[in-house]
Design brief:
- Two copies of one chain form a homodimer.
- The first copy, chain A, is an all-alpha fold and about 200 residues long.
- Helices cover about 75% and strands about 0% of the residues of chain A.
- The mean pLDDT of chain A is about 95.
- The interface between A and B is large, with 49 and 50 residues.
């Protein structure tokens, strides 16, 4: 299918672009950034490496594309909306955890991207900003839960940073030991955490 | 110094081995596993790539060596011993956090190794076992704090898994945003976490 060279029409081009994106995603989910090569993406697509170089002239172009794809898919993933206050905070934290195969793939790709991100100062700053934005969104939900009297007073930004730490570390543990951290246990652990936050006075 | 070829005596050999280890460590701390190449280690040592191939015939041998080095240095790092019960749990969690430049380097290398570890099933299992062992050690300390009445009752393994999640996620956030998570703030956040655990009834 891909051996025929470049696409002829705009529709072909977009369809192929989607297939390329899906192949990059599958390679990252299976092998991480360490295994993200033109050769691996070509094999996943059943295409030639030569075709791929039209899309990605360099390894760095492929990595940049993969990072953008990770951002896009994260931004467009479905979100829980079950309530306000503490329920909304819980929703946002559940949205991060690897509770489904899709969420496991994207978390696995996020964790694997940290190596690349930490070794590039610009990218590292960019990741720092992403996590700061995530904390800012959690801070709003903590403050709303405090207003409803569901969480005790205290600096909401500090509580949000703690909650983000808790779920990020739980992601890492669940990825390395899925048998010890099935979805139900992750949810129980998060609920324990929220219960201790609520109870603390 | 390194251009002269292989070492002549056992003492030379061991001294060189230490220098090679240090160079591998420095490359990983600066560039992660993504940047760990024979060329980078050779440059760090001011040696030829040819010399390095005596130690590491393949990239995989270099990666395995780096992973072993990370294990050794983690096992031999200094540990806090300030007390029993909750103080001992706090010590173990503080020992994990990037509170010094040395602890920052080793955490940065650990986080960067996750990409490699997740893409290799055996290594992934091995990492899962390492974290399970870490949780088992924390579980003993949680149980001891419970016996002293410093922590409320509840499954100590589940509390330990929560505490490990909290510090691992805090490590990741502190690596990406050291300005937002200076050592003092990390310690305050950990103390907040332990205080909410202690207060929960």
């Amino acid at each position: 299918m891909y051996r025929g060279g470049m696409p002829r029409t705009k529709g072909d081009h977009e369809a192929r672009r989607r297939d390329v994106s899906e192949a990059v995603w599958q390679v990252m989910a299976a092998r991480g950034f360490a295994g993200l090569t033109l050769r691996a993406v070509a094999a996943e697509l059943d295409a030639t490496t030569g075709l791929l170089t039209h899309y990605f002239p360099t390894k760095q172009a492929l990595v940049r594309y993969a990072l953008d794809l990770l951002d896009q898919r994260t931004a467009s993933r479905p979100r829980r909306h079950t309530g306000a206050g503490l329920a909304a905070l819980r929703d946002a934290l559940l949205d991060i955890l690897p509770l489904t195969p899709e969420a496991t793939d994207s978390n696995r790709i996020w964790v694997s991207s940290w190596d690349t991100a930490l070794s590039d100062p610009d990218l590292s700053t960019d990741y720092g900003r992403k996590y700061a934005n995530g904390r800012a969104r959690l801070t709003e939900r903590v403050a709303a839960a405090q207003e409803l009297g569901e969480l005790p007073p205290g600096d909401p930004a500090r509580i949000a940073a703690g909650a983000q730490s808790f779920v990020l570390g739980l992601v890492v543990q669940a990825l390395f030991d899925p048998a010890a951290f099935p979805p139900q246990r992750q949810v129980e652990m998060l609920d324990d955490y929220l219960a201790t936050l609520s109870a603390a006075r």
